[in-house]
Automatic annotation (TrEMBL):
<feature type="domain" description="Histidine kinase">
    <location>
        <begin position="420"/>
        <end position="592"/>
    </location>
</feature>
<protein>
    <recommendedName>
        <fullName>histidine kinase</fullName>
        <ecNumber>2.7.13.3</ecNumber>
    </recommendedName>
</protein>
<keyword id="KW-0472">Membrane</keyword>
<feature type="transmembrane region" description="Helical">
    <location>
        <begin position="296"/>
        <end position="319"/>
    </location>
</feature>
<keyword id="KW-0812">Transmembrane</keyword>
<dbReference type="Pfam" id="PF06580">
    <property type="entry name" value="His_kinase"/>
</dbReference>
<keyword id="KW-1133">Transmembrane helix</keyword>
<dbReference type="Pfam" id="PF02743">
    <property type="entry name" value="dCache_1"/>
</dbReference>
<dbReference type="InterPro" id="IPR005467">
    <property type="entry name" value="His_kinase_dom"/>
</dbReference>
<dbReference type="InterPro" id="IPR036890">
    <property type="entry name" value="HATPase_C_sf"/>
</dbReference>
<dbReference type="Pfam" id="PF02518">
    <property type="entry name" value="HATPase_c"/>
</dbReference>
<keyword id="KW-0418">Kinase</keyword>
<dbReference type="InterPro" id="IPR033479">
    <property type="entry name" value="dCache_1"/>
</dbReference>
<dbReference type="InterPro" id="IPR003660">
    <property type="entry name" value="HAMP_dom"/>
</dbReference>
<dbReference type="InterPro" id="IPR010559">
    <property type="entry name" value="Sig_transdc_His_kin_internal"/>
</dbReference>
<dbReference type="Pfam" id="PF00672">
    <property type="entry name" value="HAMP"/>
</dbReference>
<keyword id="KW-1003">Cell membrane</keyword>
Length: 597
């Protein structure tokens, strides 16, 4: 059945075949995919907006908590401030006494100066001898009758957050209200700290969605919309069920517009109430931009479909079209596009050529993929081999000493009064611990030099006056990061050769100086030097691809690790003549060496 259909299809005229293919292969998929993508784009835009709004609310919550936490901390300090309690509870004989007492207590003014998160601090007391200086206030009858004042006295152990008026400027502020026990006879004062409203509004002004901060009495204490400030939540055309919600995501209608509302509560510790952060955005504003893009895309698609239909209909009868299409595909392959496939539309010579073309493109594409994958595998293999080789080289130079045993020896020597032996054992233990802990990560030059100093001190204890050493280090290079155990093997080599057949003893000099954009390291000894034949053998050993059985690995290890880390030009350089000592030097570039590893 299918074979007969294919045969019939191949017998149809090219023009009709192209028109039918266009309808089945282009128009229907575009309509289906377009409808699917439209729905997905709208949903994606909505989800992104919800995620952004949730992120914004979390950010506002954290920043708001940071602001009001300052008021909370200051209130705790003042509630335990004995000087403030004495000031507020004292009975004053004259105005002069009051002024002097105020002058001796500048703490409230200092808090206002140091913390921008608060705009005013005042303590209400029942002390008629006080003067009103806007910090300590003798509570009037109106204040005592206010809801927030009576509530604070009734809940003396808790902090509450209220949106109350400040008597100075008669403006309302979100304020921390709590009682302070002024004396043991249950006499209380009410402490009020105004949160800086400008700072709260500044936090909200950076948000793209309409956002406000509301207290538990539904007062809008801050908002990024000017017409919402100093209003109550009930003044907005918002669904009534929103007034009782403390947190969550809800659908609501604001001024007749379907909207999403995100609510999160901020309730500081030891507070009986908190505040809410409410973010509102209309659903229409979320999908407005995607709808615009979708309409534009649909317009372009429709125009493209109409033009393609007319073009195919007008030129499909021309035989040259098939040849031109084949030519275009060959050009695309020539430009490197191997994902192209030529439609096979018959059994004639062009159809056969099309089959061969498609087969050729697939073979070339598969071959290029295999070559690319093979190159990538080889690169990864070489990289891993280099890493393994580096780790092996680094581990060879770490002798595994028995640190715990040395610590026991040190303690025994110390207890028996052998302080010098205990010191040397401690240095040896410190040196071995650093060796055992050394890995591939780089360490500061200062730490490397400490290990070298430990080694030299141990050797000087052994050889006494026969060993002398000195350091010449540029202080600016002490923060240079470098591989561990680089300098110590070279110093050890210098000590051994300096003492070898030298009656005067060894003199070792370590110089680390800056030369241009590199740190130049030079380790010099006063040994008998190295004969030319021996020098050639040493240099050959340094450059050997594999280690030789029985050869000393110290110099070669350092040489290979330097080249693996900094490049071929950064290996060891050895200068020596018989009877003139030996100098080993290397350079480390400063471009990346000063960065913490």
């Amino acid at each position: 059945m299918w074979h007969r259909f294919v045969t019939l299809l191949n017998d149809i005229k090219i023009r009709n075949k192209l028109l039918l293919s266009f309808l089945l292969a282009a128009l229907l998929p575009v309509l289906l995919v377009g409808g699917y993508l439209t729905a997905e784009m709208r949903q994606m835009a909505f989800n992104n907006a919800m995620e952004q709004a949730s992120t914004n609310v979390d950010r506002i919550k954290k920043r708001t908590e940071e602001v009001i936490r300052v008021s909370l901390d200051i209130s705790y300090r003042l509630s335990n401030d004995a000087r403030l309690k004495k000031l507020a509870n004292r009975h004053y004989e004259s105005v002069y006494d009051v002024v002097e007492a105020y002058r001796d207590y500048p703490d409230m003014r200092e808090y206002l100066r140091l913390y921008k998160e608060i705009s005013n601090i005042r303590l209400y007391t029942d002390n008629a001898t006080l003067l009103n200086n806007w910090e300590l206030i003798n509570a009037s009858d109106d204040i005592k009758a206010s809801d927030w004042y009576r509530h604070a006295l009734d809940h003396e152990s808790l902090v509450s957050w209220r949106y109350i008026e400040d008597e100075r400027d008669h403006k309302k502020y979100l304020s921390l209200v709590r009682t302070i026990e002024l004396e043991s006879l249950k006499k209380y004062g009410v402490l009020v700290l105004n949160v800086n409203a400008n700072m709260l509004n500044s936090i909200l002004s950076q948000e793209t969605f309409d956002t406000m901060i509301v207290d538990d009495q539904d007062n809008i204490v801050a908002a990024n919309r000017g017409d919402w400030k100093n209003k109550k939540l009930t003044d907005l055309s918002l669904d009534r069920n929103m007034l009782t919600q403390r947190s969550g995501t809800f659908e609501a209608t604001l001024n007749g517009i379907p909207s999403k509302v995100l609510i999160d509560e901020v309730k500081p510790a030891s507070s009986e109430n908190g505040i809410r952060i409410i973010s509102v955005f209309s659903i229409g504003s979320i999908v407005k931009e995607p709808n615009k893009i979708i309409r534009l895309a649909l317009t372009v698609i429709v125009i493209s479909i109409v033009l393609a239909f007319l073009l195919i209909y007008s030129v499909s009868s021309l035989f040259s079209r098939r040849m031109l299409r084949l030519s275009r595909h060959i050009t695309r392959v020539g430009l490197g596009d191997f994902d192209t496939t030529l439609q096979i539309d018959g059994k004639d010579e062009i159809g056969l050529l099309s089959r061969q073309f498609n087969s050729m493109v697939r073979n070339i594409h598969d071959l290029m993929e295999e070559v690319t994958q093979s190159n990538e595998r080889n690169r990864l293999l070489e990289q891993k081999q280099s890493e393994i080789r580096f780790k092996m080289l680094a581990s060879q130079i770490n002798p595994h000493f028995l640190f715990n045993a040395l610590e026991s020896i040190r303690m025994e020597a110390h207890m028996k009064g052998q302080t010098e032996i205990a010191r040397i054992v401690r240095l040896l233990g410190k040196m071995m611990r650093n060796n055992l802990e050394a890995g591939n990560s780089k360490i500061p030059l200062k730490q490397e030099l400490e290990m070298v100093s430990c080694y030299l001190e141990i050797q000087r204890f052994r050889y006494e006056d026969r060993l002398r050493y000195e350091f010449h280090v540029d202080p600016a290079l002490e923060a240079l990061y470098m591989p561990p155990l680089i300098i110590q093997p070279l110093v050890e080599n210098a000590v051994v050769h300096g003492l070898d057949n030298n009656a005067e003893g060894a003199s070792v000099k370590v110089a680390i100086l800056r030369e241009g954009n590199a740190a130049m390291f030079t380790i010099t000894d006063n040994g008998i030097g190295i004969p030319e034949e021996r020098m050639d053998k040493i240099m050959q050993t340094l450059e050997d691809a594999e280690e030789r059985e029985g050869e000393r690995i110290g110099l070669r290890n350092v040489h290979v690790r330097l080249k693996l880390t900094y490049g071929e030009s950064c290996g060891l350089s050895i200068r020596s003549k018989p009877g003139c000592g030996t100098a080993i030097s290397f350079a480390i570039p400063l471009e990346g060496g000063m960065i913490d590893a």
